[in-house]
Design a protein that fits this description.
Blueprint: E1 2-7, H1 12-21, E2 27-30, H2 40-49, E3 52-55, H3 59-68, E4 75-78, E5 90-91, H4 98-106, E6 109-111, H5 115-129, E7 140-145, H6 151-159, E8 171-172, H7 182-189, E9 196-201, E10 208-211, H8 225-236, E11 239-245, H9 249-253, H10 259-268, E12 270-277, E13 280-288, H11 293-304, E14 313-316, H12 320-334, E15 340-343, H13 346-352, E16 356-362, H14 369-378
Helix pairs in contact: 5-7, 11-12
Length: 379
């Protein structure tokens, strides 16, 4: 059984991670009694006995905690900013590149990306890598977020009955351009010039939006804004997701299957294979029983994959063994292993329930996003 320790489990981040893991049956959570929670010896023993350790601490404390680990087996995930630009740690953003994903799989020292930084990097790095803009471009970033990221004191400030009226409006902060995310925003994006960052904290609990405006006249090699749209759309207009739930209970709740059909389906042991294409979910066929579900799912993915050599991705819910079995089925049918195994996100789990398995493939190129929007406007 995998042993997990959360150092700083009473903070905002630590509590969230603890709540998500406490019901898992495939891990053991190492916990310390309240009187030992800040005891250095007790923390050191817990960190060194864990297979996975989360550091949910301020920067200085995270550096100290990492130094307490005396073995090379414990995988450490640091949620602070302390190690995000440290050469000895891997930045936890596998989607950046194949190299980033490989490094992440092989590392036992992982720096968890910052929230604002993730949004900025996801927008900017593709533009730099594809040559739309130079690495020394003067990027500016505007971002808004809820107050949950401000920590316990910040949350209390917003949620007290006697709070200041000024908190009703969005507040611009970090005007000195020393925000703690700026270093990783620059380094991970591959920039030689520090961007200007304008973050706002707003009167809602959680959620974030990041905007990076650029002048079309600054694009390199005669590129246009339409070229950027096409570049991104070439990828997203071919992505297709196929997944299958092991129960119809959640599919019924989501309205994808009528209650009567769900009841009959459960009695007959039917398992629907569902597609997500352009944000639309469709039940494309049904398989009887669990035994042949994964094999058939691999067949469906293969039939709809335009490039059989293109990378595939496995998605799974609470049962990691389903992901492993799906991975083997893909290897057998496609002739190569999937690029990655990802735990399913909310969009799939809400529709399918916690026990679900699926795959992501590159299908045939569809009408691009801009053209679809124009069609909708005409209608």
């Amino acid at each position: 059984m995998t042993k997990v320790f959360i150092d700083g489990s009473q903070g905002t981040t630590g509590l969230k991670i603890f709540d998500r893991l406490k019901t898992r049956s495939d891990i053991t959570l190492i916990t310390l009694p309240e009187e030992k929670r800040k005891d250095l010896s007790a923390r050191k023993a817990a960190l060194n006995s864990a297979d996975i350790a989360f550091l949910c601490l301020p920067d200085a404390a995270a550096i100290e905690a990492a130094g307490l680990i005396e073995n090379d087996k414990t995988v450490v995930l640091d949620t602070s900013t302390a190690h995000r630009t440290d050469a000895g740690w891997v930045y936890g953003f596998p989607e950046l590149s194949g190299e980033a994903e490989t490094a992440l799989k092989q590392s036992n020292r992982i720096a968890v990306p910052g929230c604002y930084a993730s949004g900025f990097i996801a927008l900017v790095k593709p533009l730099i890598d594809a040559g739309f803009l130079p690495a020394d471009y003067g990027f500016m970033c505007h971002a808004m977020s809820g107050y949950s990221g401000a920590g316990k004191k910040g949350i209390a400030q917003y949620e007290t009955a006697e709070r200041e009226e000024s908190l009703d409006a969005p507040r611009l902060y970090a005007l000195t351009q020393e925000h703690k995310h700026l270093k990783e925003m620059q380094k991970i994006s591959g920039l030689t010039r520090t961007p200007v960052f304008c973050p706002y904290i707003c009167d809602y609990f959680c959620g974030m939006t990041v905007t990076v405006p650029v002048f079309a006249s600054d694009l390199q090699n005669g590129k246009t804004a339409e070229d950027i749209v096409s570049y991104l759309d070439d990828f997203f207009s071919t992505v297709e997701i196929y997944f299958a739930p092991y129960t119809l209970a959640y599919v019924k709740k989501s309205g994808r299957v009528p209650a009567a059909a769900a009841f009959v389906g459960e009695v007959l042991g039917l398992r629907p294979i569902i597609s997500i294409i352009d944000g639309k979910t469709t039940v494309i066929e049904k398989v009887r029983g669990d035994k042949n579900l994964i094999t058939r799912l691999a067949e469906v993915g293969y039939a709809n994959c335009a490039d059989k050599k293109a990378p595939t991705v496995v998605v799974y819910g609470s049962a990691a063994e389903c992901g492993e079995e799906m991975s083997k089925a893909i290897s057998k049918r496609f002739g190569h292993s999937p690029k990655a195994l990802w735990q399913a996100g909310a969009a799939i789990v809400i529709n399918a329930g916690p026990k679900v398995v699926g795959l992501i493939v590159r299908g045939k190129k569809r009408l691009n996003t801009r053209a679809r929007e124009q069609d909708y406007e005409q209608v």
